[in-house]
Amino acid sequence: MRARVDVPDLAFAAFLIALGALAFALASELSVGTAASMGPGYVPRGLALLVMAYGLVLGARAMVAGWRAFPEIAFRPLLLICASVALFAVLLPIAGLALTSFIIVVCAGFAAYDVRVRENLVVATALAAFAVVLFVSALGLPIPIWPR
Amino acid sequence: MDLFANLATGFATALTPANLGFCFIGALIGTLVGVLPGIAPITTIAILLPFTFSLPPASSLIMLAGIFYGAQYGGSTTAILVNVPGESSAIVTCLDGHQMAKQGRAGPALAIAAIASFVAGTIATLVIATASVPMSALALQFNAAEYFSLMVLGLIGSVVLAHGAPDKAVAMVLVGLLLGLVGIDVNTGAPRMTYDIAELSDGIGFVPIAIGLFGIAELAVTLGKPQDRGLLSFRLRDLWPSRAEIRSCIPAMLRGTAVGSVLGVLPGGGAALSSFAAYAVEKKSSRAPERFGRGAIEGVAAPEAANNAGAQTSFIPLLTLGIPGNAIMALMVGAMMIQGIQPGPQVMTAQPQLFWGVVASMWLGNLMLIVLNLPLIGLWVALLRVPYRLMFPAIVLFCCIGTYSIGNTVFDVWVMLLFGVLGVFFYKVGAEPAPFILGFVLGPLMEENFRRAMYLSRGDPLVFIERPISALLLALAVGLLIILILPAVRAKREEVFRE
């Protein structure tokens, strides 16, 4: 016999409880004050408790809601898109806009199942040039173009 | 009459060459993202927000508004020709629009969609111009208690009208409110829940969150699904609908406009909801409902009128009360804040050029859009032939550069990444990000008004029901909640969203 757990709902409930607990811990040093003169901690603590309580109710309901599996995640696009963003954050201060743009576009391109390598390289070159012209030359954003 | 004087002020602002240019750019970008599936107007507005910093306030708002209603025009093109909504509010247009295209009547379907949008856009502009003055006069009498109650009503409204499960939408609102409080407390100067991270002292950035949830997460989810682009061909000279078709569509357009104008103003309303409701109304009131779903031209005209009307009238609560009714309006709050404008009823009196300029630009934008969409339809169709794999890397890059450029710090890029991953999680568990964004924007405002009202009443919570307007607003909110819980209404609601 399978468990009667609704996995997506339970996961969401766990997220709520964890977030509420974290917020409560972070807000615990703040003074609460009184209802007439609230301190900085009054509303955050109240909301954190509310989020946790809501998570508990949703979680309890999910335990008996009947089996539902967590939907499948397409890991290839998710991981490659995230990797591109992370690469941007790491590389931009070191490598400048032109190289960073080229690298992250190549990386993101592989997130598509129907990627074509040569086409991807052409797109990356074109986009890197476009980004430099549009954002630095035309819009004047203070971003370094080349590696320092 | 005042209306004409106000509109004259507006046109004087909107007709300057620079503002006409920004209106055109907005309408053009809006059409583009409307046509292309996989990139929504909300993502586009989020990405462009940082770049509006250097623009004058009126130009910035005129352009961003243009993207929203421009997308309503573009979305129908893809819906009709590919049977994939270019934009969420064009989902119902697929039903009859694509059937018409299959029967070789793609041209009339496209034309009637653009004409209906234009008619609705014109009427909606007038609705905004007439409704705004009394609305903001009313709002000027609001006190902290009324503002708090109004925001409660707005948030509950957004839950009732959310697409997904309402119980999860409530949770998302709470999470948004909570995360909105991160940063320095305005009353005491104490840093709150910042974990001593200096970058968080001004709160978690709104733009990184919005781009993460609506840009990065959306991309990761879209790429995981199979891409289907079976494009139907059509000839440009077959564009014009027959006179009988136009005649039969006029009442449908007007009904659609009425439905859209009303639903656009409601909290949680906007373009997508309006088009669903208008289609349902049209099918109910038709003498031959069986024609719907088989290529009824009214089934294209009504929702296309409604989504454009709804897109525009959803600006009313933002511009007059300072309270965003949906996630895109929450982004517009961000756009106004970047310009140093506090949204609220005082905008209309303190900056009439800005207010009326934006309103007038909507009509001009609609005029440009009908030109952009009818004769240039071939261009958009050509764009649809560009495969998605060539487009999405550009979106990733623009998301990154846009987020980075708000504060020239990679910290925001990491925040965007975190919310991108969270966005995928929310999607997988069936929780909508829109109520979260609303809660996030309203969180600090609600807390401030709550604290002020409680301070004035010396800690007596009854103040919220002792003041009549506040009590009325809260009663409406409770009414909405009761409606939501009633089983009969729940079944009906699910039925509407399934269609």
Question: Can you give a write-up of this model?
Answer:
The complex is a heterodimer of chains A (about 150) and B (about 500). By secondary structure, chain A is mostly helical. Chain A is built from four helices and no strands. The longest helix of chain A has about 35 residues, at about 75-110. The N and C termini of chain A lie far apart (about 60 Å). The model of chain A has no long low-confidence stretch (mean pLDDT about 90). Chain B has one domain. Helix content of chain B is about 75%, strand content about 0%. Chain B has 23 helices and two strands. In chain B, strands 1-2 form a two-stranded antiparallel ribbon. In chain B, strand 1 (about 185) and strand 2 (about 190) form a beta hairpin. In chain B, helix 9 (about 205-225) runs antiparallel to helix 20 (about 435-455). The mean pLDDT of chain B is about 85. The chains are: A mainly alpha (about 150), B mainly alpha (about 500). The interface between A and B is large, with 69 and 64 residues.
Which SSEs are present, and which pair or pack?
The complex is a heterodimer of chains A (148) and B (499).
Chain A: H1 7-27, H2 42-63, H3 75-109, H4 117-138
Chain B: H1 2-14, H2 17-35, H3 41-48, H4 57-82, H5 91-102, H6 106-139, H7 144-160, H8 166-180, E1 183-184, E2 191-192, H9 206-223, H10 243-265, H11 271-285, H12 298-313, H13 315-321, H14 327-338, H15 346-350, H16 352-373, H17 377-384, H18 388-407, H19 410-429, H20 433-456, H21 463-466, H22 468-485, H23 487-498
Antiparallel strand pairs in B: 1-2
Low-confidence stretches of chain A: none
Q: What's the gyration radius of chain B in Å?
A: 22 Å
Strand order of the main beta sheet of chain B, please?
1-2
Overall pLDDT metric of chain B: 87
End-to-end Cα distance of chain B: 44 Å
Number of strands of chain B: 2
Sequence stretches where pLDDT stays below 50 over 5 or more residues of chain B? none
Helix tally of chain B equals 23
Beta-strand content estimate of chain B:
under 5%
